[in-house]
């Protein structure tokens, strides 16, 4: 009997490809969390004629003259500036002093030394998540290529569903590990990095969308396998019944 791919097999493969794409996009970008940092403005060093809102102005252009009494015009909140930042699993990036462009450094440098194990578990989990997703996609692709017999294709479908479901569970744990690692960095990280305000950003949403799509693919693949096995058993029973009738005749 020939096994048809059917809409469930195609849907499971499509969802798995989408989950893999979203996972890779999330892990390779650094917008899991974003926010602002409040810092004191640096001293202005450029020409006095140029209006600079990101530094502190003096009442004289000769800021290096120690014999002059210098007055700072900025008071209260005017002495501070909000710099945007965004953080991912690999890097954390912050606006430059002049608010033009970003400077990045490894997120491992930000994490507290005694809590870096959480971030390493997150990194390992995300890499394992993507690897298992790729295995699931590959097995589903082989199954749909009609390059093996019916029973082997059913086995491939079962293994694809298993790998996809396992990857989803590992991905969920890895996403939660990053949440823990980032919150630990906010509480116990270096003072020159701690944010004033922060929230989850689009890479974090991509990661959880990948998890949801991955689990939907696993459920669809398992449903396809179960339905096909029931059809096999039903047709086999019909064949056995027909043979019994022929034997009686």
UniProtKB/TrEMBL annotation:
<dbReference type="InterPro" id="IPR050579">
    <property type="entry name" value="PMP-22/EMP/MP20-like"/>
</dbReference>
<keyword id="KW-0732">Signal</keyword>
<keyword id="KW-0812">Transmembrane</keyword>
<feature type="transmembrane region" description="Helical">
    <location>
        <begin position="154"/>
        <end position="182"/>
    </location>
</feature>
<keyword id="KW-1133">Transmembrane helix</keyword>
<comment type="similarity">
    <text>Belongs to the GSG1 family.</text>
</comment>
<protein>
    <submittedName>
        <fullName>Germ cell-specific gene 1-like protein</fullName>
    </submittedName>
</protein>
<feature type="signal peptide">
    <location>
        <begin position="1"/>
        <end position="25"/>
    </location>
</feature>
<feature type="transmembrane region" description="Helical">
    <location>
        <begin position="118"/>
        <end position="142"/>
    </location>
</feature>
<dbReference type="Pfam" id="PF07803">
    <property type="entry name" value="GSG-1"/>
</dbReference>
<keyword id="KW-0472">Membrane</keyword>
<dbReference type="InterPro" id="IPR012478">
    <property type="entry name" value="GSG-1"/>
</dbReference>
<feature type="transmembrane region" description="Helical">
    <location>
        <begin position="202"/>
        <end position="226"/>
    </location>
</feature>
<dbReference type="GO" id="GO:0005886">
    <property type="term" value="C:plasma membrane"/>
</dbReference>
């Amino acid at each position: 009997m020939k096994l048809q791919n059917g809409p469930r097999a195609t849907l499971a493969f499509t969802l798995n490809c989408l989950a893999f794409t979203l996972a890779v996009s999330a892990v390779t970008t650094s917008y899991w969390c974003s926010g602002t940092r409040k810092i004191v403005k640096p001293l202005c060093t450029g020409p006095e004629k140029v209006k600079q809102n990101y530094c502190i102005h003096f009442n004289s252009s000769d800021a290096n003259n120690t014999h002059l009494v210098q007055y700072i015009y900025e008071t209260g909140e005017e002495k501070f500036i909000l710099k945007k930042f965004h953080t991912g699993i690999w890097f954390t990036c912050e606006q430059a002093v002049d608010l033009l462009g970003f400077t990045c450094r490894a997120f491992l440098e930000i994490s507290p030394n005694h809590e870096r194990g959480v971030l390493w578990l997150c990194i390992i989990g995300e890499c394992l998540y993507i690897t298992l997703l790729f295995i699931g996609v590959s097995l589903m692709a082989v199954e749909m290529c009609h390059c093996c017999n019916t029973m082997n294709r059913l086995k491939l479908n079962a293994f694809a569903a298993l790998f996809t479901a396992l990857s989803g569970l590992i991905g969920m744990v890895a996403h939660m590990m990053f949440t823990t690692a980032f919150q630990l960095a906010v509480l116990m990280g270096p003072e020159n990095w701690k944010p004033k305000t922060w929230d989850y950003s689009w890479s974090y949403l991509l990661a959880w969308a990948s998890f949801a799509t991955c689990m939907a693919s696993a459920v669809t693949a398992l449903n396809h396998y179960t339905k096909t096995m029931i059809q096999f058993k039903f047709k086999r029973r019909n064949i056995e019944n027909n043979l019994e009738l022929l034997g009686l005749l």
